Amino acid sequence: MEPNTHVCGPAQGQPHTHTIIFLHGRDSDAHEFADELFESEGSTDSAAPEQDRTLPGLLPTVRWVFPAAPLMQSQRFNSAMSQWFDMWAVEDPEVKSELQRNGLHRSIHAVLAIVEAETKLVPKNRIFLCGISQGFATALSLLLAEGQGGFAGLIGLCSWLPFSSEVEAKISECTSEMPLFSSLQALYYSENPLKTPLSSRLKATPILLGHTLDDAVVPLENAQRMKNALSLLEFKKVDWHVYEDGGHWINEPQGVDDIIAFIKENWE
Question: Which Pfam family, giving just one, matches this sequence (predicted)?
């Protein structure tokens, strides 16, 4: 486990049944993100009005793992910042996209090691891989780089798909399924392919995407483009939610409710 990884849960006296790995956004850190995430609340249950409506309160048997992005030099701002990969413009990730490649490959490798460590504690089908903004851009890239699927599900908030133009080009160029997923592996992982892609299991991975209309950091159009790419890649279950408000964050309480419902629906 990386030394800066923040881990909490399950609640005292509760068994460890599932792991949620949650990647923070750019220019944040694992502890800060975890604290803010755990302040978000879902709807009050009229049958149990005193119940803790935070994510840890509603999911007491979950082990929460928050990896920390490395400090990486930003070419645009000429300073070091916490980021999973360098990029020129969050609002338009296609600008100078080559800046993203090396850092993204390194971050995929680091998060894969965390996933591997967690599979020694619970099966992979009890691990949810999640992220917000650049964190989910990394998590989704990891899924395509690994090529195996088998996660309980992915949850992405306020995010986009890196190298969208290249993915769309590969989709239009490929004439059969296996070369397509092999080429995506090569796009998101610079080393030799990790394993032979298992496209049927990969495409069965449930995915939840949430975005707000008032997100001033990542335009809704970027998230819609990601959703459309996943549809073209024939992912079988992509839940798409757009909320009126919430900014570059989680809508409360409906967005929290949707996360809880998605997790419980895919709870093994």
Answer: Abhydrolase_2
Q: What's the Cα-to-Cα distance from 136 to each of 13, 158, 211, 226, rounded to whole Å?
A: 31, 8, 12, 11
Worst-scoring range by mean pLDDT, 56-65, 182-191, 221-230? 182-191
Omega within 30 of 0 (cis) for the link into 197: no
User: Strands 18-23 and 127-132, how do they pair?
Assistant: parallel
**Comparing C-alpha atoms, which of 158, 187, 205 is closest to residue 28?**
158
Q: Coil, helix or strand for 38?
A: coil
Average pLDDT of the residues of the chain? 92
DSSP strand pairing (62-66 vs 6-8) = antiparallel
Q: Rounded CA gap, 76 and 67, in Å?
A: 24
DSSP 109-177: HHHHHHHHHHTTTS-GGGEEEEEETHHHHHHHHHHHHH-----SEEEEES---TTHHHHHHHHHH-SSH
Q: How many CA atoms lie within 13 A of 68 on its CB side?
A: 15
Closest CA to 192 of 103, 116, 105, 104: 105
DSSP state, residue 243: E
pTM of the model: 0.95
CB 266 within 8 A of CB 62: no
Q: For residues 255 and 212, what is the distance between their CA atoms, to the nearest angstrom?
A: 10
Neighbours of 163 (CB within 10 A): 22
Task: Output the pLDDT for position 14.
Answer: 97
131 and 139 in contact (C-beta within 8 Å)? yes
Residue 171 is predicted with a pLDDT of 86
Question: What backbone torsions phi and psi does residue 64 show, to the nearest 5 degrees?
Answer: -100, 125
Q: Which two tokens stand for residue 204?
A: 């069965």
